[in-house]
Every structure is written in C-alpha cells, then in structure tokens.
Write a structure and sequence with these properties.
Length: 185
C-alpha cells in the first residue's frame, strides 16, 4: 500500500493511503486550478482535436485527488468509457505531456505516476514503506544552481524524485533488535 504525505503547497502535512485517490497533487497553474475546461482549451489552442477519449482523460485528471499511475487512469477512464483502449489512453497521456498539461514522475520502484502540471514540487520516496512526501521545489534551488554553474546541466524540477528512508522507518530499524543482539534466557 502506497502512502503520500503532502507538505505542498501550504506546508500542512497530510497523509493519504493508496491506492491513491484520483488526483492528490492537483495544483495551481498560474494561480488557477486546472480543470477540465482549462485542459480542453489548451488542446484546442495547440490545434489538436478534442475527442471523447481526451475529454474523459481530462475529466479523470481534473477530478483526481492523487498522483495516478497509467493503470489507475485507464481503470477510471474505462469505468466512464469502456470503449477507450489502454493504448489510446497512453497516447493521450503522451500528448498531454507534450502540451505541458501533465507531468509524470518515477517514485521509488513503483510505476510512474501522472498529475496535472501545476506548482512544481519534488518527491521524497521511502524505499522501505513506499511513503512519498511532496516537497516544494525551492528545496532544490541550491542544487539546481550548482548543477548549472558546475556542469552546465539544467535540472528539470518536474521530475525530481529522491529515494531514501523516512524518519519512521529509520527509527523502527534502529530500535528493532538485530540478529545476534538477543540475549539467551
């Protein structure tokens, strides 16, 4: 079971358990909540066709309350429109990424997750319990500057996902007895 602890963007920590509810990282784009009509307008603005399948994917993403895997998006879309094939949904997700409407991230060893483009944030994923914490991208400012000045490398902050161990897992591991620590009775 995945968990997401969000400290973004308000700083208030909330914990959610997964499977993640549809769209938990719904954020602001230019201080406007991305909604279905915003997504559809962007598609039209790029001179792309707005199909029933695209409308349905936009609906799922705009009404989501968490980061979603492609499989979760497919399941939600097919509950609304069973005729939409998984390959069509994958192509739509690729198109939405090309239009900067959606971003995906690889969190730990789980499947990539998608969410609407919005306030840029990073992810910290515990390798042990798979909890993911969203953090403001400002935590990566110094790293981003250093990478640019030293290596000429520009960090894509939409894809920052760091792995490690959360405080709870570290505390549990350090307090748990290790083999050989047990005293004979």
């Amino acid at each position: 079971m995945r968990q997401v602890r969000s400290t973004h963007p308000t700083g208030d920590a909330t914990r959610r358990t997964a499977p993640l509810p549809l769209g938990s990282s719904l954020a602001l784009v230019n201080n406007v909540t991305p909604d279905e009509s915003t997504i559809l307008s962007a598609i039209r603005g790029a001179a792309k066709r707005v199909t029933v399948a695209k409308r349905t994917v936009a609906h799922v993403l705009a009404n989501a309350s968490g980061h979603l895997t492609a499989d979760e998006i497919t399941l939600a879309v097919q509950q609304l429109r069973p005729e939409v094939s998984p390959s069509t949904i994958y192509r739509i997700l690729e198109e939405f990424e090309e239009l900067d409407l959606v971003v995906h991230a690889h969190l730990g060893q789980a499947a990539a997750v998608y969410h609407l483009m919005g306030i840029v944030h990073g992810h910290l994923t515990c390798e042990q319990c798979q909890t993911t914490v969203e953090i403001p991208s400002s935590h990566f400012d110094a790293l981003s500057r250093e990478l640019l000045s030293r290596y000429g490398f520009q960090l894509d902050r939409h894809h920052v996902a760091l792995s490690g161990r959360c405080a709870e897992c570290r505390a549990y591991t350090t307090s748990a007895p290790t083999p050989g620590d047990a005293t004979p009775s």
